[in-house]
Amino acid sequence: MLSLSVVIPCKDDADLLLRSLAALETQTLPPLEVVVVDNSSTDDTQGVARRFRARVVTESRPGIPAAASTGYDAATGDLIVRCDADSLPPPNWLERIAATFEADDELVALTGPGDFYGVGRRKSRLLARLYFWPFAVATGAALAHWPLYGSNMAMRRVAWETVRTTVHRQDPEMHDDMDLSLHLGTVGRLRLDPHLRVGVSPRAVRDIGNFDQRFRRGVHTLRSHWPEEAPWRRWPRRLGSRRRRSRRR
What we know:
This protein is of the alpha/beta class. The chain is built from ten helices and nine strands.
């Protein structure tokens, strides 16, 4: 059986982290370790992590790319499983991940969607269709393979070791999921399992600024990886000029 390290980047999300770690304790396949990356939190993130016997590593550089990469570096399992502090995985989550990789030796990385909790089942599924699937399809078209979703993903540690020096961990404005997807796509096959689901906080869809930030980071990530002549390298400049014209009106 493959061993699994669960990596959770966290900044000032102690309350949500507590629920996520409690959910990980109910897994039908216990992980080898849980690594919580404290990205300069001012709350009790480290105390909560140690209460659940998670290993705490610290990363002072701001941003998810740096924090997540530090966690991946620290992981010792055959598989590196990533979720966020607000992720609530079902009890069979890790077991399903391990079984999928064991059945496919050529699989490099695996991902699945999220269901928003606390908003009712129907609304949760609707929001997932409006939030996750457009991102997956649009980004997948740009990448020519499925993108990874940081709240619910796993990769082989040997694959991470292949790309760890080339990912853009120093850039806090990089969309870390997309960046990692681009680099792992050069190593092997990435797969989306629509039945590999986790609960996620609806805070991602409550703030319109969140969408704007994700879009800008996504475009920034594409611009950083494609040649100068690629058309989407000009998107931010065009969008910026449109916004300036709109403000003048």
